[in-house]
Amino acid sequence: MLHTVLSFDPVIFEEQNMSAGLVILLSITAIIVYLVVVPITLHINTYSDKYFVRFPGIFSLRLGKRNETWGIWYTVFFLRFRIKGSFNAAQHRKKDKKELKSGKRKTVNLKRLWFPVRILQTFRLKKLKWDFDSGDFPLNAQLYPVTGLINSQKINISVNFNEENNICLIVYTQLFRIIFITIRYFMFNR
To answer: Which of 59, 63, 64 is nearest to 80 (CA)?
Structure first.
């Protein structure tokens, strides 16, 4: 009978653990770099009633309308889910008007307002298409040439005379910009 003898070589075992640890460390580093660098996209489109936030490959949240009822769908690592329930905008508008009448006025601390403004400044404009009607025919006629001066490759603003207001806004940011602003705010504004 042949007997095989297993020998334990500690040098080979250490090299295998070291290479496995290095692979795990590089994988974690690559995931962190991906999360920090990949752009987060915010898409608002009233032409087609599409609203979503997308973090490619990781997460997306979409708000949409089906049969006059709004719904929320989200995707996590390529798995799609729907939040059950419905939202009817007509019911909630009545409540908002009542709350506004009975609400007290609050004072605003400008120093605290600085942080959300700085976070909004991290977003970059990818596309803005705005088609509006002010409801005043002479004002629309005066705004018509002004919109021609504002338009560029990313911005398209137009005036219509048929009482339609639509906007398509696509902005993006990267997580490292938000982290940098947050760290800067909490270190120097306390």
So the answer is: 59
